Amino acid sequence: MLSLGLVLPSAAVLVGAAPASADGTTLYVDKKNAACSDTDAAAGTQGIPYCSIQAAALAVQAGQTVEVAYGSYSGTVTVTHSGTPGHPIVFKGDAGWENGSVLDLDTQPSADGGSGFVLQGVHDVTLRGFRYGAGAVTVKDSSDISVLHSFSAMGSFLVQGASHNVTLSGLFMYAGGSNSGVRVEGGATDTTITGNVVDSPSNFDTTGISLTDAPDSVVVANTVSQICDTGIALSGDSHGATIENNVVSGSNCQGAADGLLSISAASTTGSTVDYNLLGPTSAGDPYSWAGTTYATVAAFQAASQQGAHDLYANADLRTVGARAWEPADPSPAIDSGSADAPGEPARDVYGDLRAVQDPLVKDIDATSAPVDRGAVEAQNPYTFDFNGPATADDPADPLAYTVRAQTTSNPWKTSVTSYAFYFDGSTLTTTSAQPQATYRYPLSMAGQVAYPKVYAVLPDGEQIPTTDSEGLMDGGEYTPIATPAPLSASFPAAPASASAPQTESLKVQGNTYLASATVDPGDGTGTLAAAVPARSTTATAVHHYAEPGSYTATATVTDVYGRSTTVKQTVTVGDAFVPVRPTRLLDTRNGTGVAKGKLGARKALRLKIAGAGGLPSGGVTAVTLNVTVTGSSSGGWLAAYPDGAPVPSTSNLNFTSGQTVPNQVTVSVGSDGYVDLYNAFGTTDVVADVQGYFTDVKAAADQGYYQPLTPVRVMDTRKGTGGVPEAKIGPGGTDTLRLNLAKYPGVTAVVLNVTAADADSAGYAVVYPGNTTRPSASDLNFGKGQISPNLVTVPVAPDGTVKFTNGYGHVDLIADLEGYYTTATSAAAFVPLTPVRIFDTRSGTGVRKGAVGAASYVAVHIAGSHGVPTNALAVATNLTAALPTVDTTVTAWPAPWTKAPQTSTLNPARGTTRPNAAFIPIGSGGNVDFYNQSGRVDLVGDLAGYFGR
Q: What is the pTM of this model?
C-alpha cells in the first residue's frame, strides 16, 4: 500500500502536543512489549501496556489519552466511551515522527472489511496520528469528533447518521473503487472537511469527497487529485455548504461526466462556491450545478452567481523532497485563495504556515495576505541538498562526521543567515555560518545508521530542510557509523631530552583523539597533567629527573569518547656529553695537575676536574680522560673512581714494568669536582688528557648524546681506507679522515678505536678536530713493532674532518668508529655506574670459566643486570685481555655474532695483559659478544656505565 508513492506529512503536523506523562491520564498500548496484557490489573501503564487498542478503548475515560506505540494492530476498534467538553478522549499514534517518512500505526480492517475505528453514539473524541491499511474511520450518530493527521490506503473516512460537528483535517487518503476518500451521509450536519489530500493514483472511477444529505458542511482547502469521476460532490439535500479554496484536478481517463465539482439542486440552497481551482480534465465539464453541467467558469458564474474567483487551469502541482501536491511557480493556485474562508486551517497538511507570499506571483487581492488554494501551501522554493556523502574524514576520530550541503535552487533570492544541523544522539543544535558541520557521534551509536538533518535558517527564523535526508552514505549505500577500534596507546619512541639533561619530554600516542592524559614519571614525585593539543592523538608531559637512571613512566590517557587506557615505558635519563679539544690535566713527570713525582704503590692521587683545563666549575658529573702510565717500576694496575668513593675492585689500566700504556677512562666526578687515580703496585708516572665531560645542566651548544653503532672501519693507512694515503705516517706527518656528515646527523664528536701497527720506533699519535692546530696531548702511545689500540673521543670539525698526527718514526694507523655524539635529543644519555666486574673467564664470573679459544666468542648478558636496564642501547666498559697464547685480536660486538668482525677492540701480544675501553652496542637478548681471533685468551670486563633513552 505504501509503495504507491504517497509522500507523507512532516513531523511538524503530526507530533502535536508533547507525550503525556505516566500520571494516570495516559493509557499505553504496545503489542511489541513482551509484558503487554489486556487483563492485568496494572494494564495500561508504561511497564505493562495493553496489547490491543480495543482493551484501552474499553477502559479510557474522559480527559485521558490512549497512546499507541508503533505496530500493526488488526481488527476494528469500537469506541464506546465519550469525553466531555474541554476534556476529550484522545487516541494518539506514536509521536516519534522524527524522520517524517513513516506513519506510526497500521490498523488493519477486520475480516468483514470494517473500519479501523468505529465511533458510534459517542462525543468529544479525537483520533490522530494513525495509518489505516484498508478500513479507515466510521463516525456514526456522534458529535464533537475530530479525526486528524492520519492516512488511509484505500478505506473511506465515513461520517453517518445523526453525527454533528465532526472535523476531518490534515488527512492523506487514497480513493479507489467504491471507496470515496471522504463520505458524509445520512443526515450528518456541520461537518468540516479541511486541509486534506485525496488522491487516486490508479485513476479509479470514484468520488474524492462525497456529501449526501449532509447540510451545513464546510469543504475548504482540500486537494483532490487524479480523480476519474467527481472530485467534490454534494448530492441529496446538502444545503448550506461552503466550498472554497479547493484544488480539484482531473485525469486522462473518462471521468468527470458529472463535473469535477458537482452540487445537486437541493444542495445549492444557501451554499457558497468560490476560490476553487478546477481542471483540467480530458472528459466532461468542470461544473455540475443543479443538474446542469458547465464547461467554463464564466458559464458557471453566469448561471449560478457563484465562483466569482474560481479558476479553470492546470494547478501545476509538484513534489519537492517529502512534500507532494505543492503548487509550483507560477501555479494559479499560489496566493489566490481567500484567507477568510470558513474553516481555513492555520497550517497546511504538512504543518507549514499558510499565507506564505510568493514574490514571483502577483496577488489577486492586494488588500489581504491570501493563501494558496488546496491543502498544500507553496513554500519558499529555496532548496539545498547534501553535497556528496557525509563521511568520517579522520581515522583518528572515526565517529566524527562532516555533513556538507549546497544550494540547488533559490528563485526567490532568499537570504540565508545560517545553517542548523541536527544529529542523532544529540539534543543540541549545531549552528554554522557555512553549509557544513562536523559532529562526533557518541560511542553508543557506533554501528547504527545515522540520519543527520540540515536546515537553512532564514532571517525570520524559518528553517528550510534539505531536499532529502540521505543519512550517512558511501557510494549510494547507507553506511553504519564507524565502530572505533579499542583505545590503544603507546610511547611511540624513546622520550627526547627537553631543555636540559635529565629533563624529559614524555610523549604518549593514542589511536584516537585524546581528551586528557596524566603521566607518572616513576620517580616518586607524583602524577603530572600532560598537555593535549586540540584534535591531537598525542599528549606530552615535561619532567626533570633529579638523578640519572632508569625509571618506569606510566601514562593514563582518556580519549574523546570517554575511554581510558594505561601504558608504561622505561625511561632512561642521564647526562649530556660536551667534547673538548684534547687538553692535558695531569702529568706527574712535571707536576701538571698534582705535585711532581711518581704515584706510589697502594696510593691514590686526587685530580681536579671541575674548573680545570677550561672545564666549567659546576655541572660536571663525569669525565672522559685518556690516562697513560709510563715508567712503571713493576707490573700493576690502575683504577679511576670518583673522589670520596672506596677503591673499586675493577681496573682501568694493566701494565708491566717500564711499559707505557694508555687507555680511555670514563669516570664519575666526585661531588667536590675531583676524581681519584689509584696505583696498586710499584711506582709509576701517570698522564691524563681530557677529551670531554658529561653534564647534568644546559651547557655548550655542542653538548650531545650518544648514538651507538655497530663498529665499522673508517680509516686504515695499510689499505688507503677512508681516503687517506696507502702508506705509513712518517714523523710529524698527518693524515686527515673526512666523515660523511649526512650519515651522522648532528655529530659533535666521534668515538674511535685507534690502533697503531708495525711502528718502526716507539712513538705516539695525536687525534684532533680537522679545523684546529695539533694539541700538546697524546691519544695513543706505542712501542716498536707493537700493535697498540686505544679508545679516543675526539670533536669533529664542521666539515667532518679529523686529523691523525704521528710523533716519531713511521706507523700505520687504523680507526674503527664505535659511535658518535650528536645534538639530536633522541640519542642516548649516559648513566654512570659504580664500576663493577661483569665477567671474568679466569674465575667464571658472569660467563663460563675458561679461556676463549681461536675463532670463538663468549656471550655476556648485560641488559637487565648489573644496574643496566633492558632498554639500554650501549654500555661503557673496560675490556682486558690476559695472557694470550699467541698474538691475537679481540673484538667486542653486539650479539649475535655470525661471522668474524672486520674491526678490533684489543690486539694483545702473546703472554701480555692489555686493557682497552670500549663503548659496545647491546645486541639481541641484551647480550654482547667478545670474539677472539687466534690462540686462547682470558678476557675480563668491567662496567663503567650505560647509554639509554
A: 0.63
